[in-house]
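Good day; I would like, with your permission, to put a structural problem before you. A protein sequence and the structure tokens that stand for its backbone fold form the material at issue. Thank you for your consideration; the sequence and its tokens are set out here:
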Amino acid sequence: MIQTERLVLRQWQDSDRAPFAAMGVDPEVMRHFPAPLDREGSDAFVDRATAAIDERGWGLWAVERDGEFLGFTGLAVPTFEASFLPAVEIGWRFAREAWGHGYATEAARAVLRYAFAELELASVVSFTTVANLRSQAVMTRIGMHRAGEFEHPRIAAGHPQRPHLLYRVDRHDWLLSGTAPGV
């Protein structure tokens, strides 16, 4: 479990399944994904995230504020092939009602601190579609820098979501960036 001033990042609970499934069919939340996430896919995501945390002790944690599920933030190991892999990725997704409050940035800063201070990773990557300006802004706020572009191999050729931007932050640069509180 990771705590910030306002948030708790924790293992998933059964009570998170319904609000996460609602996120998966919200067209605004899923705007930068190839397709909405049906209930079966949503539950499978929760099962994989839960298993990864149980197995490794870290992963894509559920995020709550005052007991209310807001979304997730955490670390994952991408399983597709790309020139920048292997790497550990930081990612997040929040319910629309949680947007605009700084939760993604707050949670992501805490996760980077965990990645660099606890796991002692050398670097962390993140990526998103070219059009996802909100996620790109979070990446910049947490000290990441644009490191390239790639065609996401799990998205069909010609699909508008296939072009992705890659961001990266190295531990050394993060420590010097001023975005590393408490380290």
